[in-house]
Amino acid sequence: MAMLPFDDRDGYIWLNGEMVQWRDARVHVLTHGLHYASSVFEGERVYNGAIFKRDAHHQRLYESADLMGFTIPYEIDVINDAAARVIAANNIENGYVRPVAWRGSEMMGVSAQKNSINVAIAAWEWPVYFSAEAIMKGITMQIADWRRPAPDTAPVKSKAAGLYMICTLSKHKAEAAGYNDALMLDYRGRIAEASGANIFLVQNGEIHTPDPDCFLNGITRQTVVALARERGYTVRERAIMPEELAQTDEVFITGTAVEVTPVSMIDSYRFTVGPVTRDLMQAYDDLVQGRREQDSSSSVSAA
Fold this sequence. Notes:
The protein is α+β, with helices and mostly antiparallel strands. It has helices at 32-36, 54-67, 76-89, 132-137, 165-176, 219-230, 275-288; strands at 12-15, 18-21, 39-41, 44-47, 50-51, 95-103, 117-125, 139-148, 181-186, 191-194, 198-203, 206-210, 235-238, 250-255, 259-266, 269-270. The chain folds into two domains: 12-125, D-amino Acid Aminotransferase, Chain A, domain 1; 132-288, D-amino Acid Aminotransferase, Chain A, domain 2.
Protein backbone atom coordinates (compact mmCIF):
# COMPACT_ATOMS: atom_id res chain seq x y z
CA MET A 1 0.00 0.00 0.00
CA ALA A 2 1.46 3.34 -1.10
CA MET A 3 2.09 5.99 1.54
CA LEU A 4 -0.07 9.09 1.19
CA PRO A 5 2.38 12.01 0.77
CA PHE A 6 2.05 14.82 3.28
CA ASP A 7 1.92 17.53 0.62
CA ASP A 8 -1.02 16.03 -1.26
CA ARG A 9 -3.92 15.42 1.12
CA ASP A 10 -7.43 16.65 1.72
CA GLY A 11 -8.04 18.78 4.78
CA TYR A 12 -7.00 22.05 6.36
CA ILE A 13 -3.88 23.55 7.92
CA TRP A 14 -3.67 26.72 10.03
CA LEU A 15 -1.00 28.95 8.45
CA ASN A 16 -0.09 32.39 9.81
CA GLY A 17 -3.51 33.05 11.27
CA GLU A 18 -5.67 31.60 8.50
CA MET A 19 -7.18 28.19 7.85
CA VAL A 20 -6.08 27.15 4.37
CA GLN A 21 -6.61 24.13 2.14
CA TRP A 22 -4.03 21.43 2.95
CA ARG A 23 -2.41 21.56 -0.50
CA ASP A 24 -2.12 25.36 -0.36
CA ALA A 25 -0.03 25.40 2.85
CA ARG A 26 3.28 26.07 1.10
CA VAL A 27 6.45 28.11 1.65
CA HIS A 28 9.07 29.36 -0.77
CA VAL A 29 12.15 27.26 -1.51
CA LEU A 30 14.34 30.15 -0.32
CA THR A 31 13.16 29.94 3.27
CA HIS A 32 15.66 30.43 6.09
CA GLY A 33 14.13 27.56 8.08
CA LEU A 34 14.92 25.16 5.23
CA HIS A 35 18.48 26.34 4.56
CA TYR A 36 19.66 27.13 8.09
CA ALA A 37 17.35 25.00 10.29
CA SER A 38 15.92 28.07 12.06
CA SER A 39 12.78 26.13 12.90
CA VAL A 40 11.15 24.70 16.03
CA PHE A 41 8.22 22.35 16.35
CA GLU A 42 6.11 20.18 18.62
CA GLY A 43 4.55 16.74 18.30
CA GLU A 44 1.25 16.35 20.14
CA ARG A 45 -1.18 13.46 20.46
CA VAL A 46 -4.94 13.79 20.30
CA TYR A 47 -6.97 11.33 22.35
CA ASN A 48 -10.76 11.47 22.14
CA GLY A 49 -10.60 14.85 20.42
CA ALA A 50 -8.30 16.64 22.88
CA ILE A 51 -4.54 17.27 22.93
CA PHE A 52 -2.84 15.48 25.81
CA LYS A 53 -0.64 17.89 27.83
CA ARG A 54 -1.52 20.69 25.42
CA ASP A 55 -0.29 23.59 27.55
CA ALA A 56 3.04 21.91 28.30
CA HIS A 57 3.63 21.32 24.59
CA HIS A 58 2.77 24.86 23.57
CA GLN A 59 4.80 26.36 26.40
CA ARG A 60 7.79 24.36 25.17
CA LEU A 61 7.20 25.60 21.61
CA TYR A 62 7.58 29.20 22.80
CA GLU A 63 10.62 28.34 24.93
CA SER A 64 12.23 26.57 21.97
CA ALA A 65 11.70 29.62 19.76
CA ASP A 66 13.21 31.85 22.44
CA LEU A 67 16.30 29.63 22.61
CA MET A 68 16.56 29.91 18.82
CA GLY A 69 16.48 33.69 19.04
CA PHE A 70 13.02 34.49 17.70
CA THR A 71 9.56 35.20 19.07
CA ILE A 72 6.37 33.48 17.93
CA PRO A 73 4.08 36.35 16.79
CA TYR A 74 0.91 34.98 18.38
CA GLU A 75 -0.26 34.72 21.97
CA ILE A 76 -0.39 31.17 23.30
CA ASP A 77 -4.20 31.36 23.52
CA VAL A 78 -4.27 31.90 19.76
CA ILE A 79 -2.17 28.78 19.21
CA ASN A 80 -4.40 26.78 21.57
CA ASP A 81 -7.49 27.91 19.66
CA ALA A 82 -5.87 27.30 16.28
CA ALA A 83 -4.94 23.74 17.26
CA ALA A 84 -8.52 23.05 18.33
CA ARG A 85 -9.82 24.46 15.05
CA VAL A 86 -7.44 22.29 13.03
CA ILE A 87 -8.49 19.18 14.94
CA ALA A 88 -12.16 19.96 14.33
CA ALA A 89 -11.69 20.93 10.67
CA ASN A 90 -9.95 17.63 9.94
CA ASN A 91 -12.35 15.55 12.05
CA ILE A 92 -9.54 14.14 14.20
CA GLU A 93 -10.65 11.99 17.09
CA ASN A 94 -7.35 10.21 17.73
CA GLY A 95 -4.38 11.66 15.92
CA TYR A 96 -1.29 13.83 15.85
CA VAL A 97 -0.82 17.61 15.85
CA ARG A 98 2.29 19.32 14.48
CA PRO A 99 2.80 23.02 15.30
CA VAL A 100 5.90 24.45 13.62
CA ALA A 101 7.48 27.91 13.58
CA TRP A 102 10.28 29.07 11.29
CA ARG A 103 12.14 32.07 9.89
CA GLY A 104 10.94 33.18 6.47
CA SER A 105 12.57 34.43 3.26
CA GLU A 106 13.32 38.14 3.65
CA MET A 107 17.04 37.50 4.23
CA MET A 108 18.95 34.52 2.84
CA GLY A 109 22.15 34.04 4.78
CA VAL A 110 23.30 33.09 8.25
CA SER A 111 22.19 36.49 9.55
CA ALA A 112 18.41 36.82 9.38
CA GLN A 113 17.22 39.32 12.01
CA LYS A 114 14.66 40.88 9.64
CA ASN A 115 13.00 37.65 8.59
CA SER A 116 9.34 37.17 9.38
CA ILE A 117 8.36 34.34 11.71
CA ASN A 118 5.88 31.91 10.24
CA VAL A 119 3.68 29.50 12.16
CA ALA A 120 1.65 26.53 10.95
CA ILE A 121 -0.40 23.84 12.66
CA ALA A 122 -1.41 20.58 10.97
CA ALA A 123 -3.19 17.49 12.28
CA TRP A 124 -3.75 14.01 10.94
CA GLU A 125 -4.95 10.60 11.96
CA TRP A 126 -2.23 8.67 13.79
CA PRO A 127 -1.66 4.92 13.64
CA VAL A 128 0.77 3.17 16.00
CA TYR A 129 4.38 4.32 15.60
CA PHE A 130 5.75 0.78 15.67
CA SER A 131 3.83 -2.30 14.54
CA ALA A 132 1.63 -4.07 17.07
CA GLU A 133 3.91 -7.11 16.80
CA ALA A 134 7.01 -5.03 17.55
CA ILE A 135 5.32 -3.46 20.57
CA MET A 136 4.18 -6.83 21.89
CA LYS A 137 7.63 -8.43 21.52
CA GLY A 138 9.65 -5.28 22.19
CA ILE A 139 11.46 -3.23 19.58
CA THR A 140 15.12 -3.72 18.69
CA MET A 141 17.74 -0.97 18.75
CA GLN A 142 21.25 -0.37 17.50
CA ILE A 143 23.71 1.92 19.26
CA ALA A 144 24.25 4.89 16.96
CA ASP A 145 27.52 6.33 15.72
CA TRP A 146 26.30 9.90 16.17
CA ARG A 147 26.10 11.37 19.68
CA ARG A 148 23.94 13.99 21.32
CA PRO A 149 25.92 17.27 21.45
CA ALA A 150 27.19 19.04 24.55
CA PRO A 151 25.08 21.91 25.93
CA ASP A 152 27.74 24.44 24.95
CA THR A 153 27.70 23.34 21.30
CA ALA A 154 23.97 23.44 20.46
CA PRO A 155 20.66 24.70 21.93
CA VAL A 156 19.94 21.23 23.34
CA LYS A 157 16.88 22.30 25.35
CA SER A 158 15.10 23.51 22.23
CA LYS A 159 12.96 21.19 20.12
CA ALA A 160 14.74 22.55 17.08
CA ALA A 161 14.67 20.99 13.63
CA GLY A 162 18.44 20.94 13.20
CA LEU A 163 18.98 18.77 16.27
CA TYR A 164 17.10 15.94 14.56
CA MET A 165 19.48 15.61 11.61
CA ILE A 166 21.64 13.05 13.45
CA CYS A 167 18.50 11.28 14.66
CA THR A 168 17.41 10.68 11.08
CA LEU A 169 20.88 9.47 10.11
CA SER A 170 21.00 7.12 13.09
CA LYS A 171 17.51 5.72 12.61
CA HIS A 172 18.07 5.15 8.88
CA LYS A 173 21.27 3.22 9.57
CA ALA A 174 19.57 1.13 12.27
CA GLU A 175 16.63 0.31 10.01
CA ALA A 176 18.97 -0.65 7.17
CA ALA A 177 20.61 -3.12 9.55
CA GLY A 178 17.25 -4.65 10.51
CA TYR A 179 16.63 -2.77 13.79
CA ASN A 180 13.60 -0.67 14.67
CA ASP A 181 15.42 2.31 16.14
CA ALA A 182 18.73 3.72 17.33
CA LEU A 183 20.09 4.31 20.83
CA MET A 184 22.06 7.53 20.98
CA LEU A 185 24.84 8.12 23.46
CA ASP A 186 25.78 11.61 24.57
CA TYR A 187 29.04 13.47 23.98
CA ARG A 188 30.54 11.77 27.06
CA GLY A 189 29.63 8.25 25.95
CA ARG A 190 26.69 7.94 28.34
CA ILE A 191 23.29 6.56 27.35
CA ALA A 192 21.13 9.48 26.23
CA GLU A 193 17.94 8.61 24.34
CA ALA A 194 16.42 6.93 21.31
CA SER A 195 16.23 8.77 17.98
CA GLY A 196 13.01 10.50 19.05
CA ALA A 197 12.18 9.22 22.53
CA ASN A 198 13.54 9.01 26.06
CA ILE A 199 14.79 5.73 27.52
CA PHE A 200 14.35 3.88 30.82
CA LEU A 201 16.15 0.85 32.26
CA VAL A 202 14.75 -1.49 34.92
CA GLN A 203 17.35 -3.03 37.22
CA ASN A 204 16.28 -5.20 40.17
CA GLY A 205 12.83 -3.63 40.17
CA GLU A 206 14.13 -0.05 40.19
CA ILE A 207 13.73 2.32 37.25
CA HIS A 208 16.76 4.23 35.97
CA THR A 209 16.73 6.94 33.32
CA PRO A 210 19.47 9.25 32.02
CA ASP A 211 19.68 12.73 33.48
CA PRO A 212 18.48 14.96 30.60
CA ASP A 213 21.25 17.52 30.78
CA CYS A 214 22.00 17.54 27.03
CA PHE A 215 18.71 16.43 25.48
CA LEU A 216 15.01 17.12 25.96
CA ASN A 217 13.34 16.20 29.22
CA GLY A 218 10.36 14.84 27.33
CA ILE A 219 6.81 15.63 28.38
CA THR A 220 5.93 11.94 28.17
CA ARG A 221 9.10 11.16 30.12
CA GLN A 222 8.00 13.46 32.93
CA THR A 223 4.51 11.96 32.88
CA VAL A 224 5.83 8.39 33.12
CA VAL A 225 8.27 9.29 35.91
CA ALA A 226 5.32 10.72 37.88
CA LEU A 227 3.17 7.65 37.16
CA ALA A 228 5.97 5.32 38.25
CA ARG A 229 6.51 7.14 41.53
CA GLU A 230 2.76 7.20 42.18
CA ARG A 231 2.78 3.43 41.79
CA GLY A 232 5.57 3.01 44.30
CA TYR A 233 8.55 2.48 42.01
CA THR A 234 11.94 3.96 42.80
CA VAL A 235 13.01 6.15 39.88
CA ARG A 236 16.63 7.25 39.66
CA GLU A 237 17.68 9.95 37.20
CA ARG A 238 21.42 9.63 36.76
CA ALA A 239 24.36 9.10 34.43
CA ILE A 240 24.15 5.63 32.82
CA MET A 241 26.95 4.02 30.84
CA PRO A 242 26.14 1.54 28.04
CA GLU A 243 27.96 -1.25 29.91
CA GLU A 244 25.05 -1.22 32.38
CA LEU A 245 22.83 -2.79 29.74
CA ALA A 246 24.41 -6.12 30.74
CA GLN A 247 22.78 -5.87 34.18
CA THR A 248 19.43 -4.54 33.00
CA ASP A 249 16.24 -6.64 33.06
CA GLU A 250 13.81 -4.43 31.13
CA VAL A 251 14.12 -1.42 28.83
CA PHE A 252 11.39 0.85 27.51
CA ILE A 253 11.21 4.15 25.66
CA THR A 254 8.72 6.99 26.07
CA GLY A 255 7.53 9.77 23.80
CA THR A 256 4.45 11.45 22.39
CA ALA A 257 4.62 9.25 19.28
CA VAL A 258 5.81 5.97 20.84
CA GLU A 259 3.91 6.40 24.15
CA VAL A 260 5.46 3.64 26.32
CA THR A 261 7.14 1.04 24.11
CA PRO A 262 9.18 -1.95 25.35
CA VAL A 263 12.64 -2.78 24.02
CA SER A 264 13.74 -6.40 23.61
CA MET A 265 17.28 -5.89 22.26
CA ILE A 266 20.01 -3.25 22.03
CA ASP A 267 22.86 -4.56 19.89
CA SER A 268 23.70 -7.90 21.55
CA TYR A 269 21.96 -7.10 24.87
CA ARG A 270 18.55 -8.72 25.35
CA PHE A 271 15.70 -7.83 27.70
CA THR A 272 12.30 -9.13 28.69
CA VAL A 273 9.03 -7.27 28.25
CA GLY A 274 8.60 -7.50 31.99
CA PRO A 275 6.09 -6.54 34.67
CA VAL A 276 7.35 -3.00 35.27
CA THR A 277 7.14 -2.10 31.60
CA ARG A 278 3.71 -3.70 31.20
CA ASP A 279 2.43 -1.93 34.32
CA LEU A 280 3.53 1.48 33.06
CA MET A 281 2.24 0.84 29.55
CA GLN A 282 -1.19 0.17 31.06
CA ALA A 283 -0.99 3.11 33.46
CA TYR A 284 -0.08 5.51 30.66
CA ASP A 285 -2.81 4.18 28.38
CA ASP A 286 -5.36 4.54 31.18
CA LEU A 287 -4.26 8.15 31.70
CA VAL A 288 -4.39 9.29 28.08
CA GLN A 289 -7.65 7.46 27.39
CA GLY A 290 -9.32 9.08 30.38
CA ARG A 291 -9.72 5.91 32.43
CA ARG A 292 -8.16 7.79 35.34
CA GLU A 293 -8.16 11.45 36.32
CA GLN A 294 -6.08 13.65 34.08
CA ASP A 295 -5.64 17.29 33.12
CA SER A 296 -4.97 17.81 29.44
CA SER A 297 -3.59 21.28 30.12
CA SER A 298 -1.07 19.76 32.57
CA SER A 299 1.26 21.25 35.11
CA VAL A 300 4.16 19.14 33.82
CA SER A 301 7.27 21.20 33.25
CA ALA A 302 8.04 21.86 29.59
CA ALA A 303 11.76 21.94 30.28
